Amino acid sequence: MTTLLEKTEDAEAGEESGQAAPAAEPAPAQKAGAELLLDALEEQGVDVIFGYPGGAVLPIYDALHQRETIRHVMARHEQGAVHAAEGYARSSGKVGVVLVTSGPGATNAVTGLTDALLDSIPLVCITGQVARGLIGTDAFQECDTIGITRACTKHNYLVGNARSLPAIVHEAFHVSRNGRPGPVLIDIPKDVQFEKADYVTRRVARQRNCIVTPPVQPKEIEHAVELMRQARRPVFYTGGGVINAGVEASAALRALARETGFPVTSTLMGLGAFPASDPQWLGMLGMHGSFEANNAMHGCDLMIAVGARFDDRVTGRLDAFSPGSQKIQIDIDPSSVNKIVKVDFPIIGDAGVILEALLSQWRKRENAAAALPSRLSEWAAQIQTWRGKDSFAFETSDTVIKPQFAIERLYQLTRGKDVYVTTEVGQHQMWAAQHFHFDDPNRWMTSGGLGTMGYGLPAAIGVQIAHPGALVIDIAGDASVQMMMQEMSTAIQHDLPVKIFILNNEYLGMVRQWQELLHDGRYSHTYSESLPDFVKLAEAYGGAGLRVERPGELDDAIKEMIAIDKPVLFDCRVSAEENVFPMIPSGAAHNQMLFGGAFSGDEVSKEGRVQV
Amino acid sequence: MENASVYPVPQGEAAVAESILAVIVDNEPGVLSRVIGLISARGYNIESLTVAEVDAEKHRSRITVVTRGTPQKIEQIKAQLGRLVPVRRVIDISEESDALTRELALVKIVSTGEQRVEAMRLAEIFRARPLDTTHTSFIFEVTGARDKINAFLDLLKPLGLVEVSRTGVLSIRRGSEAE
To answer: Is ipTM over 0.95?
Structure first.
């Protein structure tokens, strides 16, 4: 029979597998569930929790009160706590931990959990639940957390008793960080939190072998390298999976690109895995990607997808997607393969491990033919022509601040600093991706899959917790930033000098752009009425506010913002009706891009209009 | 009338086909919801579902699902089922040529006279076993592949078929190899 998946029998699951259990010691005193939880978190190396207290987690908060090993960062909304944990995880490579109460605490966390699921961010979210005897009785602040979060977590657990709690926590971390990372939720009834039981260490806890990554298949690697040696128009199409695979994966990608001479493009989520300053860098691809990246994807004869999932923002029209290429797809998640685009040659595995294997196989082969500069020279010349289009170029102005110009200045004035960037969702996010350049992984935190407005400010808080001395900037829009504005309080309380750089165009800019494109400029409810005075708002929170309206004032203001050692709301008033270009309209192919200027109204085909 | 909206009228999807999946899972609370939730979340109806523990020591259950979908969607469902933590193995029975599938049905017939005799004859042909009888009714137990049971029920429809209870499809592979 077609066995699609073979998970071996238990045993060696965890990283700690194969080690003998420690010799029997005198049994330690039994502890309450809340203490067992914190013991397990400590053993997993957790030193920060993002959370919000409430009735059903009181025992855990009481236990937390007496622990100095774990720092608790109180958010002002559970969604903010989850995004902060995402920012922490994405920028540090660790698992982010969230602690919220039952009912509204859990439902408020749902957006953040879904965001983490779509962007493969490792999180463990602990929710309180009403006492076991009350479950299913519509008790106060009760909700079916397990049912609600089943579709927005990688896995979830309802803890039945304190005895099983430590092993569940250990398995949750195992599930969250291994394979394709994602959020895992543990729902703990209140009475389990004070029920007494023995602690179980990570080593002793019996882990199921639930996340399987197959070993490297030398045959596959040899075949892939053979294709690479013959390719005349190759391209690396890299994604968030390279970031998730750790800095080693980025290093392997760089080495492999350098030795093969292949050009590299990346999705929004993968920015930073390959340095933007490298001559082989094509820029981001996709709907608002560069001309050279999209044309290289369209015209290549060999596409090597690494940790990228052929998202609809990337592929454009599917039946015209990269028509003449053979496609190799490297992904840790078998369900990502052939999901959208049929590939010729899937390789299941960790991006870093596979890239390293490709690199060593490439080096092993006699490279005379492959190294011939003439093999790729035509392709390189073609790419150079496309580059000449300078597709991210924009018109500058002496009177109004162009949003692209603002990002460009922000980038120039923060170069050489230890800088991390988060974003909200919309036009500003695309301009940031186009005009802020990253040379290292884990420096760019954005909501790619779910497109969650409000992500950037709390994510910046999480990043600043992980990197206390760094310059953390949330590139924001005037509409997005208001969705999680209350997290300014969190930043003030914990002395986190995050910089909120708002490109204020008084519109829900991206929606407005689509209304211009699809609906003849009928701007139905996309004007940001009654915006707050962001400067006064910052001051009201105890932070600093800056406002800039003229291009000539921008540099000094950015320098001032960087110098201020507390949270800053930077109200950058930009030209209102600027559109993000270049653009592949929905339903169009990679080689049918729009550049600047007004929309004529027939850019989008009937079929394309259905797509978001 | 021409479609006045800027959006097109949706066209039909690719052809759907029946698919039988056997899913071996850890028998723990919620595992059934995870499996069927994944299928129903894609808007596919589950035509039959059987589930029972098959290994008490290892706490393994076997879930057999019959659903319909486009081949690409079924492939996705299979891959995503494999991703679920308590799922041990996913077997696509419909891709398999030497798989045995069986279903059991209990069938109630209310009729008299010639119809009653004809129902008896059919039951014999289909090797259905009478479990209960009155002067006006029969209850038959019939086992077989899904198609055979469907055929039996179709033939009984004009002969006083009033109630049916079916177990849903079970499956196992022929020969000495085990899963």
So the answer is: no
